[in-house]
Amino acid sequence: MTSAPEVSFEFFPPKTPEMEEKLWDSVRRLAPVRPRFVSVTYGAGGSTRTRTHDIVRRMAEETDLKPAGHITCVAATRTEIDQVLTDYWTAGVKRIVALRGDPTAGIGTKYSPHPGGYAYASDLIAGARNIADFDISVGCYPEVHPEAGSLSAEIDNLKRKFDAGATRAITQFFFYPDVYLRFLDAARAAGIAQPIVPGIMLQSNFKGLKRMAGLCNTSIPSRIADLYDGLDNDPETRDLVTAHVAADLCNRLVEQGVDQLHFYTMNRAGLSLSTCRLLGLKPQAQA
Ligand code: FAD
């Protein structure tokens, strides 16, 4: 029998006081699952810089969770980014998710590094390593990043990020277990030994999911699209379908030896909690 995997949870910085309340409620409800870490995204173009930092710091100060701040290279100089990293370390935030970020004009437009900034994620990782001994997660793309061009270029770039000092990679979301397993095999064949943690999407708004998948090269099996057919006005059933689809994918991965999973929670505790239950992971009483 396989044992339940370890999990981590990703949140995004909310825009309104109501959404902020929902975020902290979700954090409180998910904490008893004892995640390995929790992370908070950085809005496109660095747009949520202050909100991301405030939430990550508050998590470090007020909870027992291990928070990780996402940070990107876009729209900031090295000096500005180094200051953020130093402030994180001083505030007790020892984890980051280091990313290049998407072009400021939007996904699909040409990326140009900020003059005086870190150009790519590998440069940011090397910069963070110079500042402190951070635990550094990075992104990777089993279906290949739209700009990478080929699986071998994708693996080369991932290797560059591990060589620069990354601790683990978290994948873009995917739905075919074989896509992940083939990517893992290719990474291992290239000499990458570090963890490559599947990123599991818990977005039950299927229209939004399709839009995101299109932007980032994720294929949605027709069998899954069919499950959402006719549910545009039925969010309750969509949630049940989403937890089932996610748990089915996770269980197939766990059967293949995967022991860590990262959930894109969309700031909703219920979907993550029900998916965890279906994997045999229950909230634990607090010490
Ligand atoms: P990189 O690893 O730097 O590579 C991206 C591409 O740049 C490569 O495919 C390659 O084509 C090219 N490249 C890389 N290095 C070089 C080099 N040395 N020379 C020439 N070309 C090179 N975005 C946000 O804005 N905020 C977030 O919080 C956020 N969180 C994410 C979390 C996860 C788990 C993932 C998977 C993605 C996340 N993203 C986030 C999206 C991410 O910023 C985009 O996918 C972005 O386009 C690529 O970022 P990266 O760190 O993978 O880039």
The tally of strands reads 9
Distance between the termini: 28 Å
What does the overall shape look like? globular
Order of helical and strand elements: EHEHEHEHEHEHEEHHHEH
Q: Total number of helical segments?
A: 10
CA-atom Rg in angstroms? 18 Å
Question: Structural class, from secondary structure content?
Answer: alpha/beta
Quickly list its features.
TIM Barrel, single chain, nine-stranded parallel beta sheet, 44% helix, alpha/beta, 10 helices, globular, 287 residues, binds flavin-adenine dinucleotide
Q: Could you characterize what this model shows?
A:
- With 287 residues, the protein is of the alpha/beta class.
- The protein has one domain: Alpha-Beta Barrel (TIM Barrel).
- 44% of the residues lie in helices and 14% in strands.
- It contains ten helices and nine strands.
- It has helices at residues 17-30, 49-62, 78-90, 121-131, 151-163, 177-189, 206-216, 222-228, 235-255, 269-278, and strands at 6-11, 38-40, 67-72, 95-99, 135-140, 168-171, 196-197, 199-201, 260-264.
- The chain has a nine-stranded parallel β-sheet with strand order 7-6-5-4-3-2-1-9-8.
- Helix 5 links the parallel strand 5 (135-140) and strand 6.
- Helix 1 (17-30) packs parallel to helix 10 (269-278), helix 4 packs parallel to helix 5 and helix 9 packs across helix 10.
- It is globular.
- 39% of the residues are buried.
- The model has no long low-confidence stretch (mean pLDDT 95).
- The chain binds flavin-adenine dinucleotide (FAD).
Q: What can be said about this structure in brief?
A:
With 287 residues, the protein is α/β, with parallel strands linked by helices. It has helices at residues 17-30, 49-62, 78-90, 121-131, 151-163, 177-189, 206-216, 222-228, 235-255, 269-278; strands spanning 6-11, 38-40, 67-72, 95-99, 135-140, 168-171, 196-197, 199-201, 260-264.
